[in-house]
User: Fold this.
Amino acid sequence: MGAISLPVDPIVEHNWPKFSLRSSSDSPKSSSLFVSWQPGNYQRTAKRTEDAFQACNDIVACFQERARVERQYAQQLSEWSNKWKPVVDSSPLYGSLMKAWQCFLSSADRLAALHATICRSLVSEDGDRVRTWQKDTFHKKLFGGFKESHDIETGFARAQKPWAKRLKKLDKARRAYHKVSRKEQVAREREAHAQGNPDVSIDKQKKIQEEREVAQQEAEKVRARYEKVLEEVNNYAPRYMEEMESVFDQSQEEERKRIVFLKQAFLSIHKHLDITNNESVRAVYNELHNTLMAIDEQEDLRWWKNTHGPGMPTDWPHFQEWTPEKKSKKGKKEVEKSGTIEKSVMIGGVRVRALYDYVGQETDELSFKAGEEFLKIEDEDDQGWCRGKKDDGWEGLYPANYVEVV
Assistant:
């Protein structure tokens, strides 16, 4: 009797039990394997739960490290910008060229802020999202493992228990049939050897023939039992497949949910990292490009001509009439009044706030930190310098474009 035809998985071809005339010693072990349907061969499917949990840990660790890279890059951009601002501001360049160079530094500051934001998003948004989902999805058991993988393993074990019993019974019947078949084969060989042999008596030949007939009858009987057990196994196979696939589909659904979530998590990370579509980045580089395109050599040359060249206001020599000086004696009240005015000039001024850090390069220059407030006591000169006075009484010169009026 042949094996009953069973449905074949579109991916895995099953090697179901079949009636075999070969002994167990002749049959390779692989011929009795049922691939994914054999008892106990479901651990990899059940283990996907633990693998997914570990994958979540690895994903969080991976992008936390990327967040550190983003933070370090932001810090390096800021440090680079702060280092070069004093050099750029005090450089001999002027006009639109000066503005273009300064725009590179201000763009770096804005990009540094953007990458700092990416760092925070990777840690506090994406990382926390994966951690929260991981906590809600995977439930650890008291003695190790996860409830989800335990449920899958229990379902597979329950479905395979009756199948394993039938396979054990079938294997026992197969081994019994192969044993009696070997016995029958030996009896046939003895009978063939005895026939026509003058050294073997007629009675001995008759006895050997009877032994062969007994062995043949026993082999047929055991064969019938083997075929019956095999039929029972093949008849149970559809139910076994149905129960196994039910548990497998449950595992697949849980895995599908994990894949869908992690896909969304990866898309969120991509959205934070992909600065090519970030409007603020576009604005930074558009502004920088527009500033560079605005470099106007004619306007800069005109400014230089009118400020330091022949176009600047010139007090040409002219005749000056002599005027006698008037001698006047200052009274006490006038002297006191003059002293009062000079004193008010010293303590007066305009309150300003520093936009950037500045370290004085000369002894007559004022040093300050960004955000620090002090007094501007003299207006900007032709070179762009003002005189200021700090609250501790220290006075000195500083770049006018480093501060704003409070």
Observations:
- Residues 16 and 274 are 52 Å apart (CA to CA).
